[in-house]
Amino acid sequence: MSLLKGIYAASMSVLNNDLTLNVDKTIEHSEMVIENGCHGAAIFGSTGQAQLIPVAEKIKLLNKISTNKYKDNFIIGTGLNSLGETINLMRVATSLNLEKFLIMPPAFYKYSDEDVFNFYSKIVESTPNAKIVLYNFEKLCGYQFSVECVEKLAKNFPDQIVGVKDSSYNLFENLKIDNFSVMPGSESKLLKGLELGCSGIITATCNATSKLARKVYDDFEEGKEQEVNTNLCNVRVTFEKYNLISGLHTFYKHKDSAYKNLLPPLRILNKDEESDLLNNLEKFNFSLKSSMAA
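Below the sequence we write its predicted structure tokens.
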């Protein structure tokens, strides 16, 4: 049985006005998406501005969530190019009994499947208790996992390499590994993925769509007719017209003005973009209020 199943949000990071990480509000946000329907939350993924947040601030959050009631529902993203810094952050997390990680290969450099296998091998050797979800997103790191590379990693490290988030979408229809979680990175792929045997999704827009996505997942698991999948996909496509991080923070700033804070070069949407986003969401009867659990 796969380690991860269900609906996971690539959780957002909330910042102070001076652009430092607001640890408490970031944790509260991850709690909220779980209470709205997600099975869990991936903290410090790309949606959480992981590549832009200082390691020291990440460690402050790790210390705080290590005693959180949803501790077992969290996946920790590393968001670091450096192998050494990745391992050091994972060692801090595992010392706090946080053992699930989302790790993307380094950006900027060009490399092969063999090089990627070597990268993850070094991580596993240094943190053997970690449970690692591979992050497949060529747009961000310049590398796309092949089916063969994922199979080799899972075969050689079955206790450590436990799944993949597939945001390049070349794996979820083709990868079949026992006891391994395959999780596309979009709600638009949720139902098809489940029909193919995938375990669920890890997505940015589940910060907003968690209630809808959970219903699609639960209805599939219970063999019920799908009632909201079309609406879920429409909401996803609406957010995709913009940078997802910008759109989500613009959406949530109506709940708390702290969401307007983004680390450069990221920014919230301008007034015209914001109006367009909210008006288009309203066409699908989707709003900040409707996205929240009753």
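The chain has a mean pLDDT of 97.
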